[in-house]
Amino acid sequence: MPLKAVILIGGPQKGECRGAAGGQGLGPAPLTALPAGTRFRPLSFEVPKPLFPVAGVPMVQHHIEACARVPGMKEILLLGFYQPHEALSRFLVAAQQEFRIPIRYLQEYAALGTAGGIYHFRDQILSGGAEAFFVLNADVCSEFPLQEMLEFGQQHGDAHGFVILGTTANRTQALNYGCIVANADTQEVQHYVEKPSTFVSEVINCGVYLFTPAIFQHIGEVFQRQQQELALEESSNGWQRAEVIRLEQDVFTALAGRGKLYVYKTDGFWSQIKSAGSAIYASRLYLNQYSKTHPERLAQNKPGGPVIRGNVYIHPTASIDSTAVLGPNVSIGEGVTVGAGVRVRESIVLHGAALHDHTCVLNTIVGWDSTIGRWARVEGTPSDPNPNDPYAKIDSESLFRDGRLTPSITILGCSVTIPAEVVILNSIVLPHKELSRSCKNQIIL
Ligand code: GTP
């Protein structure tokens, strides 16, 4: 069956991809509320968030790999409202070569919402006779059981049903997600509520869907209704706004209980990647999966090499001293240098960074081209919830909970310089900053 896949990559967050932003000597800020839409700062200054490396490869490469594995996949479309971007174009060219499948970026003229974009580009999605297509949110990490969803879809709704990938959360966590009430026998979705204020269901929407072309009729109904309302508004106010259509609130809520929407529940790993902190958590999940899917990506203990503990990814161009100890859950990027006696655990070190002799880096993201001086200690607090909680897997959002910074991982933006022998604890350092002393629980602007 001819299939396509659409990956919703969204667009720039506030302050994203605009190059260097710091260096003005504004000094430290207290841990107070941060503006909304900045959860991935300061890392998204340098690359669009979907290209941020998770377990050694760009975040969306995990989606692309999963889609390319499905038999019958004809094309993968990345849909977003980023301006044409050099890094994105380079990534697409490389990915097409590696996965031998057409991969294109389609740019929305404005943020059209999770359903508005696919509706706008429906002709491109269906071109070539696609009989069904997947839609995947870029900001989730998962095993992406797409083949299983396909088989489930063929058995439900007379092959005309739409399938949502679901997982189970605890009662409190579920309130932050789309909640699904389904018929226990048929798995038909009877109610769908996005981020309810009181408990609805423990089954939540994973942001991965399988649709047939019939979905466009349903989005089209919402579109027509909105156009009529907009026309009325425009005539009374004299202004027009872009028509945003959301799959979750506008489409699924209306489709529930109509024999068309089904949930396929997975026990596999799943997590959102909203904040930079959750990228470390997602890295751990993907590194863990590599032992089955990509053992070649996991570093091994070798004579004359560094000590590897647990799952570690090291880019082939990185230079690691044989007395360093790395892991578990460490990703070392391109061209990184790691000196003698260095210890790194639960961290992501981005390309070009240098960890000088005897530094200790724990629960930290070290930005591109940053330098950490000898004997310095850069440390965050693990954001993991209670390990005894069976639903811990999906709670990785503690860095900016409720828009506030909570003591959590440390993030160094790009080209940050940390001098020798200082201690940086639970702090965020914006790009191009040269620190002169230790700091704790601060945002260094
Ligand atoms: P929040 O918790 O409020 O962030 O909501 P959410 O988890 O439901 O996420 P949201 O619906 O904002 O986004 C889900 C996915 O769709 C993410 O990968 C976004 O990047 C992407 N996305 C969101 N809005 C748009 C849009 O207007 N166009 C496109 N192409 N993608 C979008």
From TrEMBL:
Superkingdom, natural source: Eukaryota
PROSITE patterns, sorted: HEXAPEP_TRANSFERASES (PS00101)
CDD domains: M1P_guanylylT_A_like_N (cd06428)
Domain Mannose-1-phosphate guanyltransferase C-terminal: 308-444
Gene3D superfamilies named in the record: Hexapeptide repeat proteins, Spore Coat Polysaccharide Biosynthesis Protein SpsA, Chain A
One Pfam family here: GMPPB_C
Xref: InterPro entries: GMPPB_C, Hexapep_transf_CS, Mannose-1P_guanyltransferase, NTP_transferase_dom, Nucleotide-diphossugar_trans
GO molecular function: transferase activity
Domain Nucleotidyl transferase: 36-225
Family according to the record: Belongs to the transferase hexapeptide repeat family.
Entries under PANTHER family matching the protein: SUGAR-1-PHOSPHATE GUANYL TRANSFERASE
Protein name: GDP-mannose pyrophosphorylase A
